[in-house]
Amino acid sequence: MATSLLGEFMSSDLTQWSEADQVQLFTGEGILELISAMYAQASGPKRCVLIELHHRPGAGVSGLFEVVPVVDSAEEGAAQQPSLFVVATTETISEDATNVARVDTRDGQIVVWEHPNDPGLPGLATASIPERVQQQWGQGADLLDLQTVSYRPLRRAVLKAKFSHESSWYFLKVLRKDAQLLWHKHVLLAQAGVPVPQVVGAVVDEVVAFRTVPGIPMARAIMDSATPPISGSLIIDLLTSFPASLSDVPVRPAWTDRLHWYAHAARTAVPQYSQRIDALKASIDEVLEHAERGPLVTNHGDFYEANVFVSNGTISGLIDIDSAGPGYLIDDLACFIGHLAVLPTLDRRYAHVPGFVDYYLNEFAQYLEAQGISISGLYARSASVVLTLIAGARDEEDPHWESSALARLEVAEQLFSRVA
User: Fold this and answer.
1) Which of 38, 191, 204, 305 could bridge across to 219 with cysteines, CB 3.0–4.6 Å?
2) How far apart are CA 386 and CA 379, in angstroms?
3) 22-25 own/partner pairs: CB under 8 Å, 24+ apart
């Protein structure tokens, strides 16, 4: 991979630039020209497009780009070459990493690699290359389809594979580490009767394979629905059924515990609302300093409607249990409320959701009060979760994403206003 670049990007006097500056670079023309220049040297001119931007507060910024060959249509017999998918990041990458290019810009270093050679996800190629997928999980059957569901550079990826011998999909979760721990969590929860996906085979290259769960995502079930698909008591029953054996796994911080970083990301994404973001964070911090959190138990750690599957008024599946372990019930409930509350900012078909938020808040508040846990803490933590989602409103394909970010800030402020 070539690393000599346009002169305007080069500098021998490197400084650590702010994450706001990094976001600005990754969303401007400069980064596109930089990557295009890298690949033009190999096989002719290229056009570069930003597909996704990921800002991990305190770590850096990463972007997924498509590099498209520019073909002269007037050239007889010209054939369209395949596109490349390339990742660039400002995060610190081990000096031992292979298949990467290190580019010294005038502000700091950018590391670039071609998908699927992610230096943080050793199993991404195993789960992304059809021949490898068929070999590892096909059990002699043909691989009919392979799709990427999600990809966060250096963090995780999820793909789904369809084989000729199964009527449903397999999901392949690619992790940086602790894949065996995740496999173990699934086994423990399944033994306790929690409807988690069934694991398929052993861990391979930090990749865990699962079968699908029955039912449909709750997020889909509440679209255009005038009634909640499941009761609040069912949610509490599910979350309080997590086995005590999960208390031995490492603790992961709740969304609220990382509020400082997410508020920083929100200010970076929409600096024009920095004062409101800072004021809300300060108010949340003040409430949570005194609000009773409840006993340390075992919880899901990332509980919200997209991870809950429902069928005929029951909870038929629970996915994404990576964060399951020691935690607090109130944090799972707040995570659910916060994510639920922002849905109307994403799609107008969620018109009934504000009423659902009121319903679930009332159900959860009654239970928490009976346990001697502060409902002010529930409101503040729910607002905190929404605040953490503000930066995620950025969508390079949506010219109005800043309006969505503002709508999320307003939802957070409304939730916090319930604090007595």
Assistant:
1) 305
2) 11
3) 22/55, 22/60, 22/61, 22/90, 22/108, 23/53, 23/55, 23/61, 23/268, 23/269, 25/61, 25/105, 25/107
**Burial of 181 (C-beta count, 10 Å sphere; 0-12/13-18/19+):** middle
**Average predicted confidence (pLDDT) for the chain:** 90
CB 125 within 8 A of CB 132: yes
- Residue identified by tokens 């070459």 is 81
Distance from CA of residue 265 to its chain's centroid?
14
Residue 3 pLDDT > 90: no
Asked if 320 contacts 358 with a C-beta cutoff of 8 angstroms, the reply is no
Q: What pLDDT digit, counting tens, does each position of 82-96 carry?
A: 788 999 999 999 998
Pairing of strands 60-69, 46-56: antiparallel
Q: What is the pLDDT of residues 137-172, one digit of tens each?
A: 998 899 999 999 999 999 999 999 999 988 889 999
| Helix, coil or strand: residue 214 | coil
Q: What is the DSSP letter of 248?
A: G
- Please report, for residues 54, 110, 154, 183, 266, the alpha-carbon distance to residue 19 in angstroms, rounded to integers and kept in the order given: 11, 13, 17, 35, 11
Q: With CA atoms as reference, report the closest residue to 171 among 335, 393, 322.
A: 322
Residue 392: which residues within 8 A CB-CB, separation 6 or more?
none
